[in-house]
Design goal:
36% of the residues are buried. The longest helix is centred in the last third of the chain and has 29 residues, at 304-332. The protein folds into 2 domains: 10-196 and 304-333, Rossmann fold; 216-297, Orthogonal Bundle (Tyrosyl-Transfer RNA Synthetase), CATH 1.10.240. Helix 10 (159-176) links the parallel strand 4 and strand 5. The strands form 2 sheets. A 3-stranded parallel β-sheet has the order 1-2-3, sandwiched between helices. It has a two-stranded parallel sheet with strand order 4-5. With 348 residues, it is mostly helical. Helix 11 (218-226) runs antiparallel to helix 14 and helix 12 (247-255) crosses helix 14 (275-302). It is built from 15 helices and 5 strands. Bound molecules: tryptophan and iron/sulfur cluster.
Length: 348
């Protein structure tokens, strides 16, 4: 190992097994992870057990969904030479640590987590009154603390979970860290998330059916762009518009170069360009971004065993780190596997 690899800070992040990823997943997480590989020692985990916290009734697609996520990671440029990629359920130590952390996590901490309250209120089509769903952030804490991660790149919605992880780490250390802290407190690295609208102008999300997938072929990307909503004030071709209130304008801001952005700004406001032309420029930028990914993905699709082999190699590396942590945890708790002669207490 070169000195630079040993000195690098460690990152862990996770993504649920949702199946194929869309541009929102890319912009909100994956693109950032790809960049982080240059600077950090990275662990990226497909969290299939987390997917079960809401989708427990039908598990027939979980495995395939995990593989699809991993394929998109590889397509987007996560590099198995530099990053450890694995599926959470393949590293059963996560369950063990989750159990131990659950012993010391007060219920009140979990009930106060904003995502818990929101989802209980908003998701009505499944029963989220389960033990596992309440424990979601404890499992997440186990994912992070298992690798003693220094930094966790996440979006704004996950900040409360990382804060909880820090509190759990602190509590663990205060109970059992007699000879030094077992867990470092991980820091949030907030992923800057530009507003990414879907084709209907609402936030891009699988549940809205308004996504552009990383696997969408060029004709599909172009077709989706054609149907995308625009500035509602621009009814006729001769009406001027405003890219700042147009979802297509938002996409330009993320994906287009400054020269195109300038043409859009000037042309839209003066009615010098039409929306069809403007949309075709976004499509150009997207196709340019996606086609190298799709090219990389092809290799794995033609030989799916390749991706599975990468995940297996990742599991091995992850389990090595995980078993070291679990040894530390057991030692700290006085529950190690090694024989110790019974301590005879002096009778008074
Ligand atoms: N809860 C995260 C999400 O919904 C996924 C996740 C699970 C995660 N374990 C993690 C993220 C550990 C960062 C670190 O996006
Ligand atoms: Fe939106 Fe472009 Fe049409 Fe302006 S020209 S309203 S930015 S699609």
């Amino acid at each position: 190992m070169t000195p630079s690899t040993t000195l690098r800070k460690r990152v862990l992040s996770g993504m649920r097994s949702t199946g194929k990823l869309h541009l929102g997943n890319y912009v909100g997480a994956l693109a950032n992870w790809v960049r982080m590989q240059d600077e950090y020692e990275c662990f990226f985990c497909v969290v299939d057990w987390h997917a079960l916290t809401t989708d427990y009734a039908d598990t027939s697609q979980v495995k395939q969904n995990s593989v699809e996520v991993a394929l998109d990671w590889l397509a987007a440029g996560l590099d198995p030479e530099r990053s450890v990629m694995f599926i959470q359920s393949h590293v059963p130590e996560h369950a063990e640590l989750h159990l131990l952390l659950s012993m010391i996590t007060p219920l009140g901490w979990l009930e106060r987590v904003p995502t818990y309250k929101e989802q209980r209120e908003n998701i009505k089509d499944k029963d989220l009154g389960t033990y596992g769903f309440l424990g979601y952030p404890v499992l997440q804490a186990a994912d992070i603390l298992m690798y003693k991660a220094d930094v966790v790149p996440v979006g704004e919605d996950q900040v409360a979970h990382i804060e909880l992880t820090r509190e759990i780490a602190r509590r663990f250390n205060s109970f059992y860290g007699k000879s030094g802290d077992v867990f470092p407190e991980p820091k949030v690295l907030l992923t800057p998330a530009p507003k990414l609208p879907g084709t209907d102008g609402r936030k891009m999300s699988k549940s809205y059916g308004n996504t552009i997938m990383l696997t969408d072929p060029e004709p599909v990307v172009r077709q989706k762009l054609k149907t995308m909503v625009t500035d509602p004030a621009r009814v006729r071709r001769s009406d001027p518009g405003n890219p700042d209130v147009c979802p297509v304008g938002d996409l330009h801001k993320i994906f287009s170069d400054s020269a195109t952005m300038e043409k859009v700004n000037v042309g839209c406001r003066s009615a010098g360009i039409g929306c069809i032309e403007c949309k075709s420029w976004v499509a150009d930028a997207l196709v340019q971004l996606l086609s190298p990914m799709q090219e990389r993905r092809k290799k794995f699709e033609e030989n799916p065993r390749l991706a599975w082999d990468i995940l297996e190699a990742g599991t091995k590396r992850a389990r090595k780190a995980a078993s070291e942590t679990m040894n530390d945890v057991r030692d700290a708790m006085g529950m190690s596997l090694t024989y110790e002669a019974p301590v005879v207490k002096n009778a008074q």
